[in-house]
Amino acid sequence: MPNYICVTCGTQYPASEQPPAHCPICEDERQYVNPNGQQWTTLEALQQDRRMVIEPVEPNLHRLKPEPKTGIGQYAHLVQTPDGNLLWDCVPYIDDATVAAINALGGIRAIAISHPHFHTVMVEWSRAFNDAPIYIHAGNRRDVVRDDPAIHYWEGDALSLWDGITAVRCGGHFEGSAVLHWRDGADGRGVLLTADTIHIVQDPNWATFLYSYPNAIPLPASKVQRIVDAVEPFAYDHVYGGFGSKMDGDAKAKVRASAERYVRAISE
């Protein structure tokens, strides 16, 4: 039986003879149902006309994206460290060429996911790399539609995966939304990988913070402050978002200023 994948968001479901009746990830107000109706595909079908682009963005950091665009256009990031490689977030595609290319970069020790819009085909990724453990904050557990023994639900405000690699629970976009702090990135100045918990806007010197991006639903000031407070203990000079954007240089001050601007705007 196939594991159907939602065409719109890229989430993969448990094996079934027929496609699911609904995609609860899309039906949630933070996402949307395709205006043409719910549509389904499979990984095998996607492999007929797609390829993975793997490109370096700075030393020991690569980003991954399938082309043509798949799902909502998510990017994943591969962080290379002396203690093993971490895949941050998942994209809704994988094939043999992708596995070979990542193995040439050192493989994957573990996978960590920011929030449900990046769960995608995470189980396929885990199985392709020796059942690599998948770390998801417990606040996102209810939105895991294909559970698996490889998934580890963590609790609390931070999870040290290994030396220099820390998942930080920020909340906001989802209850369990998390970012990744890579201590040694940016030549030791630190990197945050944020998906869209901290979303870099068209001017990459600024970020915004929303409950729903496609539906433009804002977050209250208290939750924006919670996000900024969660990352305050960590040093970082670069921020990489989940859709190809980068905030470069003095990023921590820029994130603080962005939160202040946001709160000021919704308070006036």
What can you tell me about this protein's structure?
Helix 6 runs antiparallel to helix 7 (about 250-265). The N and C termini lie far apart (about 55 Å). The protein has a single domain (about 5-265), classed as Ribonuclease Z/Hydroxyacylglutathione hydrolase-like (Metallo-beta-lactamase, Chain A). It has helices at about 25, 45, 95-105, 120-130, 185-190, 220-230, 250-265; strands at about 5, 40, 50-60, 60-65, 75-80, 85-90, 110, 135, 150-155, 160, 165-170, 180, 190-195, 200, 205-210, 210, 215-220, 240, 245-250. Strand 5 and strand 6 (about 85-90) form a beta hairpin. The strands form 5 sheets. The protein has a 7-stranded mixed sheet with strand order 3-4-5-6-7-8-9, covered by helices on one side. The chain has a 6-stranded mixed sheet with strand order 10-11-12-13-18-19, covered by helices on one side. Strands 1-2 form a two-stranded antiparallel ribbon. The protein has 7 helices and 19 strands. The chain has about 270 residues and is of the alpha+beta class. The radius of gyration is 18 Å and the shape is globular.
